[in-house]
Amino acid sequence: MAANKSSIALTQVTEWSAGESRRADDYLAAEEPLEIRVGRKSLGVAMRTPGDDRELVAGLLFTEGLIEDIGQVRQIDCADSDNGGVRNFARVALRRGVKLGAEIGRRGFSAGSACGACGKATIDQLRNRGVRRPNEAARFDAEILCDLPDKLRASQAVFGRTGGLHAAALFDARGELAVLREDIGRHNAVDKVIGWAVLQQRLPLDDYILLASGRGGFEIVQKALVAGIPLLASVSAPSSLAVQMAREMGLTLLGFLRGRRFVIYAHEERLGLSAPAAVLS
């Protein structure tokens, strides 16, 4: 997977090693603002890594409940769209008669970590949006899951140059990579992946695995649920609210997926495992 030139910045640094210093060129992950406007209304500014902006906008609008499907959108103009556009600016045109969902202004593009006390309200909000439990019949092989982090890393073009980006990827039940996107923000990487599916009209993603390179926070769980994804895995730990939401909404949630080990926090039935051994106290 080739890196997008706009996703990488080149700078000169001083490298110190074993008592000696030298000047060297270094690659950085680009971070720039993207203002998103729907008609005359500004939704705010998202800090992101340039590239796949159209997917980012589509994914964000969908996962935040501002649109129900891409059919409500007439056009998304940004620098990487077919129509061209101004760098760091995205303009969304809705179809006649379509209004933004009620969630507008709720998050300002990133709500951050949430407290346990608001967990019930967050889950109720998902239910009020009509978000359904993911496909209960979906089944996945634990052995296949163990191979996914290596496949993710092998396809991270920008990370390989900079070491500074998060990634999110969709895999099918056979472990085949469907799409991978990178961004300096882990939520943005997930929005780009889901935005790809929105634009491809592939929703719901009821037989796919979503793998995130960072921790599994509640916002990523929420996005997976909105997209109909039955299994979310991350290479790090989930938060308490992420686990609560996954358990109540029927999402299989895995953390610490590294090597031949992972921890299941919710709905292990999709993995068809044998009964776990009892813990001796």
Q: What is the H level of CATH, i.e. the homologous superfamily of the domain at 142-271?
A: Cytidine Deaminase, domain 2
Total strands: 12
Strand order of the largest sheet: 8-7-9-10-11-12
Low-confidence stretches: 105-117
- Largest beta-sheet details: 6 strands, mixed
H-E order? EEEEHEEHHHEEHEHEHEE
Rounded mean pLDDT is 84
- N→C terminal distance: 49 Å
CATH architecture of the domain at 142-271: 3-Layer(aba) Sandwich
| Share in helix | 25-40%
Radius of gyration: 20 Å
Task: Name the shape in a single word.
Answer: globular
Summarize the structure.
By secondary structure, this protein is α/β, with parallel strands linked by helices. It has seven helices and twelve strands.
Structure description:
The chain is α/β, with parallel strands linked by helices and 281 residues long. 26% of the residues lie in helices and 29% in strands. It has 7 helices and 12 strands. It has a 6-stranded mixed beta sheet with strand order 8-7-9-10-11-12, sandwiched between helices. A 4-stranded mixed beta sheet has the order 4-3-6-5, with helices on one face. α1 crosses α5. The longest helix is centred in the last third of the chain and has 14 residues.
